[in-house]
Amino acid sequence: MKRAVALALLAALMAPASSAQGYDQRRRQLIGKIARVPDEKMGYGHIAARLWLREGVPAAEKRLRELLEGDISGDMFWMFPMTAIAYLDRGQLSDSTRALMRKSWKRYYPFRGDTENHWLLYYTSLYLMAQMWPDLDGEGWFNGKSSKENMEEARRWIDSWVRLTTTKGQGEYDCTHYIGVYLLPLAYLAAWAEDPRLKKQAAMMIEWVTADFAAESLDGIYVGAHARTDDRQVVEKWAGVSSDFAWLLFGQGKETPPFGGYAPFYAMADGPEPPEILRRIATDRSRPYTHYEKKRTRNRWRFHDELHGPVYKTTYMTKDYAVSSDQGGVLQPVQQHSWDVTWRLEDPAGRHNTLFSLHPYSGMVELEAYFTFSPDFGTEAVWRSKTTYDSPDKLLGGSPYERIAQSEDAVIALYDIPAGTRFPHINGFFPKDLEEFEEDSSGWIFVRGGRTRIAWRPLAPYVWKPMAGGGRRLFSPHLKNGAVVQAASIDEFPTAESFRKAVRALKLEFSLEPRPRVVFRTLRGKLMEFTHGEAPRIDGKPLDYANWPAFGCPFLNARAGEPRLEMTHGGVRRVLDFRTLTVKEEKIAGPR
Amino acid sequence: MAALAMCAQAEHRLHALGVTTKGWVVGAPLLPGGVFIRQSSGQWVNAGYRHPLLTALAWFPDAPGTLYVAAGDGVIRIDAAGRWRVLTDETVTELQDISAGSGGVLAFGHTAGFRLSEDRGRTWREISGGLPRRYGKAIRIDRTNSRKIVVGTENGLYVSTDGGRSWRLAGAAGFQAMRIEQSPHDASFWLAATQKGGVFRSTDGGLTFEATPRDPAAGRNLYDIAFDPADARRIAVCGWGPGVLVSEDGGLTWNARNQGLPRPDVWSVAFDPDKPGRLYAGVHEEALYVSEDAGKTWRVEGLPGSIVLKMAFVPATGGAR
After folding, report:
1. DSSP code of residue B118
2. pLDDT tens per residue, range A120-155
3. What pTM, to 2 d.p., does this model score?
4. Domain chopping of chain B, boundaries
5. Which chain A positions have a beta carbon within 8 Å of B28's beta carbon?
6. Contact: B90, A303; criterion CB under 8 Å
7. Cβ distance A223 to A317 under 8 Å?
8. Which residue among A109, A299, A377 places its CB closest to the CB of B49?
9. Would the CB atoms of A144 and B85 count as touching at under 8 Å?
10. Residue A577 placed within a domain
């Protein structure tokens, strides 16, 4: 009987739980949701959805004409839905509407923007539209360039982005929101580019980006340090575009609002279902693993000799929780998220299932490095759209004064903040949805979220401040500061007391002068030695940043600098090689 | 007779590069922005496309009908028929300044350095080699010698006398130069405005720059410089905090001229070559202001809620349409 159950479980594990039909069903569900809006409320996305479904097209066409005859705006966020409409037309629109569409690319001047995702959207859309109208001269386009020139320029940039991403990592890495605006244009190219090389390359990049997400998906929640997230999703980890894609691609989580509307465009462009191995990597949390990634900063225009700096990420994944970090510092302006512990919940909607600390830094050194803002208006220009940027209680952003070390599910965050710094304190986020909370006389704070126990040792005195969305903010107005954090599963420590006892017994020494320094023996037996401004040491050895992998975990492996990603799971190995533009999948020996 | 007088005055048309930002948030439809041209009626026209980021413009004296605009997405050529054409490719972004010399030489600064064209923008070559940091904020080609170029980087002012093939530090070391201008009266006299470093003067044709005796901006940031075409000794600079500063002695001493301006945060200044003493100032998100007495009094001219980054008087026979 036991054997039969075991076999049934094994079969269930090996079988593709998300069949092609399941993916297709989710696609249709998503597109259908977008298409079903009142005629008068249709935007470009709704029109595209109706064209995909071939339903309600006359009203969609009428609305499209209204939109194009009006005041066009949106730059690349206008370009990409227009491109979808053009390719989903498939004979459903009238010649006069097509002519109107073509003229709109002359009448309106979309700006190229200033971020990586802007450019990928811009150049992908421009490429595909120039491909559609290949014989137009400069008079036919807003930028005065011919279709041929636009295609060549777009192709060069897309190729350069692929080279850069597959060798040095994405600049906007692991974004909970912007993952959508990478998968979307790549799906367009894979579906609609006529050049087989560009088409293949895009399909492989979809796998690359999806693999990047899969290894850090905690039941559909994108965990890990992020180049960019937002004020909501940094605390409500489920609430964002990445969850749309987790549901669509892996069948994880649940159908979402959807956030941002990018997943429907991926679906409408026949964005591919990930290969089975990626679904398994996204869902197999049968044993814990540490995952390493090397990424790069956004373009640094000033104050640096190198255009891109390295980003070293560490993520520890279990079935119940994830602990993740980068090395600290300002690696991305404004919306960086550097470390946290995030735990799984059956229904994470509306729940704050994470905890972390940060120094709420804002300043022109950061903004002038990454943007061309003038020194007097940059901060205001940012907070007009990113309203918490210059706020002392913010929960988003990197700091030049933060340094982070991680060993499995233990994190040390240290802060050495110069006197006179705006916002001379650190914030610790303790969410409203903690099931247990206790400030222990030992100095540790013990909490439980879901099935995860967490111990947090502040290194300097603090007070608690209430937060608008619930929960409490650890406020510590000391310039030399830090936190030691250890997580564990409730399976290991069924009672709070057993966890407290184990943590209290761990070796912990720290000092704050002249620089914050911690020596900590983790629950896993590793000795962490970390001084602010120096490379962390684990069991006496400094972290090997020089050989940090582009991807490194039981499932994903890639060497930094080499455009080749190896995926391994369940006796299958799948290799993406961008040098030869080949995908090779084979069975291998071994248990995994 | 009055009509004739008006024609005589209308030898140049004021072009303002700016964008309406007051009340605008990311994601909202773009408000008027791009090239604004003041008509002889006094009305402003947002010529051509709306554009969110135009920072400087230039033209060749022998062909003022064609403008070359430094834009967020490249060098845009606007011809006499009002047609726009982007002259650069995917390798340049967020241009900060542009300058035209003689013989079809055109050069610009952008986020990753400086480039130069010797065929009016058809082809470009990189000229940033040898510069320690490349952020290309300001550039001017000597109007008497197109092989001499002065650039403003985050490390100071650098000069090349061989068309950008080699560079040497010319001054303002350690300061981000924000704007460089050459006097229309005396080709050997140059000024540079800096971030927190004040004004730097050159009297040897841009080969060396020295700080003025006293920083007129008191450590604040200066953004623009305007020489008065009618008075060789009158110069205006502007910035955030100091507002408009006017010198009547060739840049040795400066006086604040902010009486009547709503705030002392000014992006750009320009003297009207057809009307001695008339000075324009782009006040942050307030409006474009005009003074008939070199800044002693001011009144609103137009472009409410705008940021005007640069103004230029283009010969009336040319300019954008």
Report:
1. S
2. 999 999 999 999 999 999 999 999 999 999 999 999
3. 0.95
4. 1-40+219-321, 53-211
5. 73
6. no
7. yes
8. A109
9. yes
10. no
